[in-house]
Amino acid sequence: MNEKNIFCYLMVAPALLVTALLGIYPMLASMVMSFQSYDLLAGQRDTIEWVGFENYRTILADDRFLQTISQTVIFTILAVGIVVSMGLFLAQVVNAKFRGRAVVRTLIFSPWFVPPVVASAIWMWLLQTERSPINAVLRDLGWTSGNIRFLTDPETWGPFSIPMMSVVAVRVWNGLPFVIIFLLAGLQSIPKSLYEAADMDGAGILQKFRHVTLPMLRPVLMVLLALLFMNGFGHFEMNYIMTQGGPRNLTNVLAVWSYQEGFAFFRFDNAAAASGIILAMTSVICAIYLRLQYKDDLR
């Protein structure tokens, strides 16, 4: 090992140490706990025993947990699908040259500067049933006759509900700048000569988007989708702050369920098992991404 390699390892060592202490160790400790009986109300560490997959069998037999898994998948698919679709459109808007582009970029990227906790508090006020300015506007336009209960309506249409769609909308609003920046970097790396050649062939806007933009953005989209899906399966802040999983468990997701099980009912073993389910789901996404990346490398 030469001096250059030693210097490189020394430079990344602090970051690796922090990652190991704050990321890898807690994850491994949680996985170990998921195979133990760890009921804090039943006693202290002398009552902990190895139970194998019993915690997983317990939570998978819980209808509320199964509902939470399905809702986590639905939340993630909806949020990722909407935010990527909007991001593809808006990234091309901010990439174009027009008067007032700086103002438009500032407005589009403004949610980036709002932390999720603050964003959740702001939107909780905006979506309040009695004092919501959104309800006031809808009533003035004559689109509704009463107040919409954005975060408390228990009515459902299959797996969907107004509270679910409200939280999805807030998650999309908060995550849109990240997606746009990601896609904007990809758009700016596409050679302009490809679009000029498409113009010479008489291609329209949709044809250029389909045959030039999307194929050239494929590597960026693969990374972006993998990150969004993995983050979506473990998302916590907005669902917990805005609804705490309610009403009637309609907006609960796995991370919130795990938190409630651990810190409301003190069943850290079940909470750790739920975290293990999240890890398994994100691992599947990671495996799919690596598989697709491997196929691309073979081409």
From TrEMBL:
A cellular component term, taken from the record's GO annotations: plasma membrane
Protein name: Carbohydrate ABC transporter membrane protein 1, CUT1 family
ABC transmembrane type-1 domain sequence ranges: 69-289
GO BP term, pick one: transmembrane transport
Cellular localisation: Cell membrane
Transmembrane residue ranges: 7-28, 73-94, 106-126, 160-185, 216-236, 271-290
Family: Belongs to the binding-protein-dependent transport system permease family.
Keywords recorded for this protein, A-Z: Cell membrane, Membrane, Transmembrane, Transmembrane helix, Transport
Family matches, as Pfam families: BPD_transp_1
Membrane topology category: Multi-pass membrane protein
